[in-house]
Amino acid sequence: MPDSRDLLETFENQFPDRDYKIEIVAPEFTSVCPKTGQPDFATITFSYTPDKFCVELKSLKMYLQSYRNEGIFYEHVTNTILDDLVATVRPRWMKIEAAFNARGGITETVSAQFASAM
Amino acid sequence: MPDSRDLLETFENQFPDRDYKIEIVAPEFTSVCPKTGQPDFATITFSYTPDKFCVELKSLKMYLQSYRNEGIFYEHVTNTILDDLVATVRPRWMKIEAAFNARGGITETVSAQFASAM
Amino acid sequence: MPDSRDLLETFENQFPDRDYKIEIVAPEFTSVCPKTGQPDFATITFSYTPDKFCVELKSLKMYLQSYRNEGIFYEHVTNTILDDLVATVRPRWMKIEAAFNARGGITETVSAQFASAM
Amino acid sequence: MPDSRDLLETFENQFPDRDYKIEIVAPEFTSVCPKTGQPDFATITFSYTPDKFCVELKSLKMYLQSYRNEGIFYEHVTNTILDDLVATVRPRWMKIEAAFNARGGITETVSAQFASAM
Amino acid sequence: MPDSRDLLETFENQFPDRDYKIEIVAPEFTSVCPKTGQPDFATITFSYTPDKFCVELKSLKMYLQSYRNEGIFYEHVTNTILDDLVATVRPRWMKIEAAFNARGGITETVSAQFASAM
Amino acid sequence: MPDSRDLLETFENQFPDRDYKIEIVAPEFTSVCPKTGQPDFATITFSYTPDKFCVELKSLKMYLQSYRNEGIFYEHVTNTILDDLVATVRPRWMKIEAAFNARGGITETVSAQFASAM
Amino acid sequence: MPDSRDLLETFENQFPDRDYKIEIVAPEFTSVCPKTGQPDFATITFSYTPDKFCVELKSLKMYLQSYRNEGIFYEHVTNTILDDLVATVRPRWMKIEAAFNARGGITETVSAQFASAM
Amino acid sequence: MPDSRDLLETFENQFPDRDYKIEIVAPEFTSVCPKTGQPDFATITFSYTPDKFCVELKSLKMYLQSYRNEGIFYEHVTNTILDDLVATVRPRWMKIEAAFNARGGITETVSAQFASAM
Amino acid sequence: MPDSRDLLETFENQFPDRDYKIEIVAPEFTSVCPKTGQPDFATITFSYTPDKFCVELKSLKMYLQSYRNEGIFYEHVTNTILDDLVATVRPRWMKIEAAFNARGGITETVSAQFASAM
Amino acid sequence: MPDSRDLLETFENQFPDRDYKIEIVAPEFTSVCPKTGQPDFATITFSYTPDKFCVELKSLKMYLQSYRNEGIFYEHVTNTILDDLVATVRPRWMKIEAAFNARGGITETVSAQFASAM
């Protein structure tokens, strides 16, 4: 698993008084299956309500690319990406859904959610 | 950011006793990215319940066109359009969703909402 | 605005003891814009729970056709059609949604609802 | 209206301890309009939670075919089919939706629901 | 009915502190109708929140393939698969939906759900 | 097989000097399988270039309805309809395509064509 | 039939040395059935290669609107529109396709073509 | 490879004087990969012009089911089915297209054709 | 009309011995209507067979953006873009199709083609 | 560019007397842009008529994966893959189409073809 959390950058949310929603769809995620060495492909959808910070899109792209040659399981990568984004962006609420391409005729989608204790 | 709020015009709501909903979809919004100078494109969807006024569609079109050559970020433009419409139309409730075209293979949609204190 | 409410006919609801739902989609509605004189086109969707009466479909079609050459605004026509149907059919609940074709690249949908005081 | 309720057959629900849902879609329903003598066509969707019995699919098909040359109105046929199925299958909950093909450019869908007093 | 529950394998859930959701879609399920001997085809969708274990995808595939030449009814197979997965994976919550291909022009979908007593 | 050719009516083609094309789609055709007695359903598409006559649409509808309770095979009904229309309308060219709904998971479409010896 | 050919306007083709194609889709055509008095609706598609002139779009729109309250058959209106456009625009080649909405569950599309004797 | 050609039955073509086309789509074909033992799934489309015989649909279904537990490669099964049908039905022309479900993220479609020497 | 042809850049075709095809779809083209001052939007599709040069994609994007605030008609802009690309890229064959968004409910697509005299 | 042609394996075509077609769709191709270092994604479609050999699908998959971290332009990779497959499989005819995901809002598809001198 890459130590890539540092790649994520944020910028200041200019409308902190309003609870609004940002949805980001990244359909070109790819990593490697740790068991077979075969590439995995997924569409990752992020939804969140920013508090003080928003995630900078280009840095998010670079962060996601850091998994390109990493061996990591579906459930692990989804929860790790959520952890990294929550630690960096500190949103009021965040949800991540990773829809992986079919393998052996079977498709898996993993979704995980964070809500601040506020 | 354009001082274009004055472009918005309203007409009197003839059914103020009924809570009804108006949805407007404007798929030809374009502004400019302030960092790269490249054009951005979005579909903006407005939903609201009118109180005393409805927004006049042609003036809304001219208002949206005033962003054509302005450099402004996704989150900023969405929240500013909501502020301008709320100030002018004074709806009972309003929601704005701006779905921007993919950049670098990644798509972002920003949505923000207003509810009157009534 | 046509005095066309009289065109609407009803028949007796044979299952008044059950709360059930009727949905009617009329995609060929056309009227005229009172400002420009240009034709407007809409798909109108009716949903209701009948009480003692159901609306007769052929009479509803003739009623909608009475707007063909009338100049009337989006919000006005939607609320007027709701008023006419509620007065004639006296439903337990009724909703009308009028989705107008794009004008100047912008689409508007108006929806209004009635609930009896029962 | 055919005396066709007897055509419906059931088999024993083998999982009566679990509240589960069965959805059946029958897109080839046809009857006759009692006013014009013209054929009507509909897709009928059944959803229910079985109690002691499930409806046998082939018998349901024969039951639906018994309407082929019967003159019956949209609202009447939908509520009658619900009554017949509830009387025979005695479900915990059942919903029927009949979506009729367009006539005169207008489409009607009737939906009715049953919940046992348990 | 095959004694195939033993084919199912699990791996440890590495994020047991978080309630997250896994959805698996298996569109190539096939069994045999016990009455006619004709093959049945279905898409089976699993949704669950793991507790201590996740289901291993390759073993799930082998488990589903064990029904290939078994004669079993729609309602029976759906509930049995749910029972086998709940017994093996012990999820916090699980739902199974089996959408069978049309037979005689009629389509049936069976869905059943489990929630732990926690 | 009904003796229904007489139901077909024509009207005079007012543009006989121009080779133009008429396409008619009739999605509500139904007849009966002569082997099983079960109803069949099809969408029938007619394409033709009129010579002296065009087929009258309402009479075509009545003609197609005359098959409602007739037992007739896919290939037979398609070729017979072509024969009846060619004999009545005497087109310069005509093609008929009958796309039958799936039976036993298998779909059949029959298409036949006529060209005048002119 | 309206004497509306005079409504059509043209502008000079600035690229007469090149054979290029213009396709225009007008989905909001409406006229009246001369037999029943009921409105008809169609999408009309024009394709042509200009010679000295192109058709001006706004005038084409006004021309098509002149049929709004005229009683005229499908085949007649299609061929008449082709005649009017060929007489006014004098294209090298032109095709018109009028796809009318379903009536009595049956849809008709008429298409006619012109090629200059050059 | 099964010796299943004998399962195919034909009936007499009643319109041998006309060259017409029959298209059959069978979306529920399944066989077994001879290398991995895993099931394969395909949609098989047959197109042909009958000479003296048409293929009987139910026998075609039984013939296709005879591959259910046979190990056979994509190219082999497609060409063998074509050979069997040509030998039995003796069509004027026949084409077979077998579109197999994705394996390892890669999809293969094999199509082969026969034309009689007439 | 901008003097923007100089913005186009090319790179050397490394496979000049093979006639192959490149298709480029640019869905974010926008210019201004010279009559109304209103923005126009189009999707422009380029197809060509390179000879010695291929068009560089980023320079094509900048070239297309140079029309953003220019007033130019549909037919003019399409033919001018073709002229500019042919002069710069010198392809063996090139086709351009510009599909403009609906205005007044009417959509226009212009397509023009070039073939070298080779 | 990888020296990966050796990864491709073939098996013997068992039906060399028949000209038939194989189409393979590989939607998970990814390489790297040599200018920006950013990943590119494409769907590659192969069509060919085998002579003595067919390409083995698993080896094709490994061959395509060898480009995962290679920097190579769209036109180059498409033509190189065609060269490698023609050299290894020696087909009677082969076509390759590589449809790359949008970059900067612009999509490019490259297609190249080979025909043997037979």
Radius of gyration of chain A: 14 Å
Q: What's the pLDDT, averaged over the residues of chain A?
A: 95
Strand order of the largest sheet of chain A: 2-3-5-6
Residue share in helix of chain A: 10-25%
Described by the principal axes of the CA atoms, the overall outline of chain A is elongated
Q: Low-confidence segments of chain A, ≥5 residues, pLDDT <50?
A: none
In percent terms, what proportion of residues of chain A is strand? 35-45%
Number of helices of chain A: 2
User: Largest interface here, residues on each chain?
Assistant: A-B, 20 and 15 residues
Q: Could you give the distance between the termini of chain A? A: 31 Å
Largest sheet of chain A: 4 strands, antiparallel
What class, by secondary structure content of chain A? alpha+beta
Oligomer: homodecamer
Number of beta-strand segments of chain A: 6
Query: How are helices and strands ordered from N to C of chain A?
Result: EEEEHHEE
Features:
homodecamer; about 120 residues; alpha+beta; four-stranded antiparallel sheet; two-stranded antiparallel ribbon; 2 helices; 6 strands; about 40% strand
Structure description:
Helices cover 21% and strands 39% of the residues of chain A. By secondary structure, chain A is of the alpha+beta class. The first copy, chain A, has a four-stranded antiparallel β-sheet with strand order 2-3-5-6, covered by helices on one side. In chain A, strands 1-4 form a two-stranded antiparallel sheet. The longest helix of chain A is centred in the C-terminal third of the chain and has 16 residues, at 74-89. The first copy, chain A, is elongated, with a radius of gyration of 14 Å. The first copy, chain A, starts with 9 loop residues before the first strand and ends with a strand. The F-G interface holds F 13-15, 18-28, 50, 54, 57-58, 60-61 and G 75-76, 78-79, 103-113. Strand 2 of chain G pairs antiparallel with strand 6 of chain I, so a sheet runs across the interface.
